[in-house]
Each structure stands twice: as C-alpha cells, then as structure tokens.
C-alpha cells in the first residue's frame, strides 16, 4: 500500500522567513493534494498537482511535484502568522480514477511574530 | 455557497454508548467520504459513497462502524458500543464527480468524539 512521509514533522520559523515542507511517497503519485488544517477545524484545500514537474502557486505558497512523481514540496515565501497550522499532503493511490486519499502525518508550522 | 457541514461538532460518549455523526455535503456533490483523524496524525479513510451507493468501506475498523447515505445527500456515520480507541476527529468530505476523474475533496469541520 502507498505511504506518504512528511518532513519535517514540525517547524518553527520567524515571521518573514521562507520555509519548505516535503512529502515523499513510496509509490508514484497520481494526484497530490496539499491541505492546511487549523486546530479544531477541517482541511482547507490549497493545491492539486498531477503531472511530473508541475508547479503551482497561490499567493506566497508554491507547490511542486518532481519529475518522477514521488516527491512533492510546499514552499512558503516570507511567512506570516496567518500561515501557521498543520500542512497535510494527500495522494490518490489509483492511476485512472478519483476516490479515497492517503494522507501523510502532517507538518505543524508555527510562525513567530 | 455553503460548504460541507457536520454535526455535532463535539460529542462526549460513555464507553458502550452508540453515537451518530451527521454530514451535509456540498449541494450537488456526488461523492462523499468519511475519514478518521487521530491526534497528531493525518486523516485515514473509512468509507466512500457515490450517490447512495457505498462503493468502498474497506477502511471501517470494525463491524461496530456503519455508514449510510440513503437519499444520496446527507450521510450518517454510526458507531455502536463505542470504545476509548474510537476517540478521534471524524471528517467528512465531498467532491463533485462520481470518482471516474480526479477531483478535489472539500472537507467539513469535523466531529470531535471523546469516549470516556
């Protein structure tokens, strides 16, 4: 079965600093999703990547999927306190259909003002 | 439009009690998913509906867990004879399509279940 490993598990950065969160899969990633979760709340969709080498950006957050489609990274530029939360990567385990997602364990981000 | 809603938001149950958790998906969404999230972990898949049909229940941990979506919209996750290990956040998600294509799942706020 497919497993997703996120690193680091937790991260504390000073406001204004850049940071990167990684998500590594044991198998090919056919659809890779990034979500953000605040304590006590549900998951907020950030971005979805499908193609090897694909890169998407939204405001100060950029997500990339490597060419081999086994690793994704989430990069935040000039972090702000509003970026704090738990970042989760999720993946479709199937090639040609949507369905259940497999998630990593999450990366907890704290941003110090 | 309204997002996915779940109720109750918090539930405290005594061990052995039955509980029912409700999910209202985004209107018109065909697919509905239930996930269980233990503290400090990512969500784990429980079950999946396409309209009223339960297409995958491979993630349900035991026969004490039962889910239904009788009219293809609202879904209920029922846990019978709750155990302490059932304590978790139960997340519901919905997506527009029928699973044949890859689509974004939109999550509700979750129900936090604590079994004493």
3D structure, described in words:
The complex is a heterodimer of chains A (113) and B (116). By secondary structure, chain A is mostly beta strands. Chain A is 0% helix and 52% strand. By secondary structure, chain B is mostly beta strands. Helices cover 0% and strands 47% of the residues of chain B. In chain B, the strands form two sheets. In chain B, strands 2, 4, 5, 6, 9, 10 and 11 form a seven-stranded mixed beta sheet that branches. Chain B starts with a strand and ends with a strand. In chain B, 35% of the residues are buried. The model of chain B has no long low-confidence stretch (mean pLDDT 94). Chain A binds chain B through residues 4, 30-31, 33, 35, 40-45, 48, 50, 88, 90, 92, 97-106, and chain B through 4, 6, 31, 33, 40-45, 48, 56, 59, 91, 93, 95, 97, 99-110, 112.
**Share of helical residues of chain B:** under 10%
Structural class of chain B: mainly beta
* Low-confidence region ranges of chain B: none
Order of helices and strands of chain A: EEEEEEEEEEE
- On the 0 to 100 scale, the average pLDDT of chain B is 94
Number of strands of chain B: 11
Can you tell me the residue ranges of chain A where pLDDT is under 50 for at least 5 consecutive residues? none
Number of helices of chain B: 0
- How would you spell out the order of helices and strands of chain B? EEEEEEEEEEE
Q: Which structural class is indicated by helix and strand composition of chain A? A: mainly beta
Could you tell me the radius of gyration of chain B in angstroms? 13 Å
SSE layout and pairings?
The complex is a heterodimer of chains A (113) and B (116).
Chain A: E1 4-7, E2 10-14, E3 19-25, E4 32-37, E5 43-49, E6 55-58, E7 61-65, E8 71-76, E9 85-91, E10 102-103, E11 107-112
Parallel strand pairs in A: 2-11
Antiparallel strand pairs in A: 1-3, 3-8, 4-5, 4-9, 6-7, 7-8, 9-10, 9-11
Chain B: E1 5-7, E2 10-13, E3 19-24, E4 31-37, E5 44-50, E6 53-56, E7 65-68, E8 75-79, E9 88-95, E10 106-107, E11 111-115
Parallel strand pairs in B: 2-11
Antiparallel strand pairs in B: 1-3, 3-8, 4-5, 4-9, 5-6, 7-8, 9-10, 9-11
């Amino acid at each position: 079965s497919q497993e997703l490993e996120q690193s680091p598990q937790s991260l504390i950065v000073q406001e204004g600093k850049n940071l990167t969160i990684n998500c590594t899969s044991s198998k090919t990633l056919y659809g890779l999703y990034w979500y953000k979760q605040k304590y006590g709340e549900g998951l907020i969709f950030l971005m979805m990547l499908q193609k090897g080498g694909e890169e998407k950006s939204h405001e100060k957050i950029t997500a990339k999927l490597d060419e081999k489609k086994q690793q994704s990274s989430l990069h935040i530029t000039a972090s702000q306190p509003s970026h704090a939360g738990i970042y989760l990567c999720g993946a479709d385990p199937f090639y040609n259909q949507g369905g259940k997602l497999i998630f990593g364990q999450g990366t907890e981000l704290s941003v110090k003002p | 439009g309204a997002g996915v809603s779940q109720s109750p938001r918090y539930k405290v149950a005594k061990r052995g009690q039955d509980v029912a958790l409700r999910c209202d998906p985004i209107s018109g969404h065909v697919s509905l998913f239930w996930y269980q999230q233990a503290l400090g972990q990512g969500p784990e898949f429980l079950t999946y509906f396409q309209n009223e049909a339960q297409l995958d229940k491979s993630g349900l941990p035991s026969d004490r867990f039962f889910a239904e979506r009788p009219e293809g919209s609202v879904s209920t996750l029922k846990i019978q004879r709750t155990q302490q290990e059932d304590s978790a956040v139960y997340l519901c998600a919905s997506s527009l399509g029928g699973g044949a294509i890859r689509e974004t799942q939109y999550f509700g706020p979750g129900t936090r279940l604590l079994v004493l």
